Amino acid sequence: MRNQIKITFGSALLLLSSLFSIASFALDRTIIADAANNVTPLLVGQTAPNSKLQTADGAPVSLQALIMQKPSVLIFYRGGWCPYCNRQLAGLQDIENALDALGYQILAISPETPAQLQAQKLQSKFSAQLLSDSKLNAIRGFGIGYYVADETTAKYKSKKNIDLNASDTSDKAVLPAPAVFILDEQGRIKFSYVNPDFKQRLAPELLYQAAKYSL
Asked: What is the residue range of the signal peptide feature (predicted)?
């Protein structure tokens, strides 16, 4: 029975990680999609791009330099203003020690500026390393960026006082489709989960199992 469960779970992970396989096989993933449903993320077996990011302190950092240190769990999230993102990051605390025991580091990447990340760190207890991709280097490179509709941008600004136009490289607001990538030290993608519905996130226990299977 346990073997059957493992086979079923492994098949489920394969299905999740192949969600966009057919659609994104031969496309230019650096192009920002016109909607979240049309993103074309990198696939399992491909190599993560070497993207230039910033720490919450504003220091430049290379994604390649970070992932060469140890296996990595990359969490792409929309920003500290997003309650679904905050719940996802908070949930990582339940498996942080277990992931660390497996040898993983957690890197959380958003299009927010370093100053915004600093504010998020002060208001939360996230222990994951927060990284700024305000120039959209990683978001483009992983093929998960999409333009936010103007009416949505205006709605966030007028009703919630949230400015989505923080990107340094686009006239329109750009967000990542929430995503999880598990990488080895060579930057090879061992597992991916990308869901254009920002309300749907990979559960911590499933992420842990995916990380364990990816070793």
From this structure: 1-26
Using alpha carbons, select from 112, 108, 103 the residue that is nearest to residue 91.
Answer: 108
Q: Could you tell me the CA-to-CA distances from 86 to 21, 91, 207 in Å, in that order?
A: 28, 8, 16
Q: How many domains does the chain have?
A: 1
Give the E-state strand segments of the chain in sequence order.
52-55, 60-62, 72-76, 105-110, 129-132, 145-147, 174-176, 179-183, 189-194
Residue 32 domain boundaries: 2-214
Q: Which helix (H) or strand (E) holds 205?
A: helix 204-214
3-state secondary structure 88-128: HHHHHHHCHHHHHHHCCEEEEEECCCHHHHHHHHHHCCCCC
Contact 71, 182 (CB under 8 A): yes
The string of pLDDT tens digits covering residues 20-70 is: 444 444 456 678 999 999 999 999 999 999 999 999 999 999 999 999 999
pTM: 0.86
**CA-to-CA dists, residue 8 to 5, 46, 94, 197, 201, angstroms:** 5, 24, 24, 24, 20
pLDDT one-digit tens code per residue, 161-177: 888 875 566 678 999 99
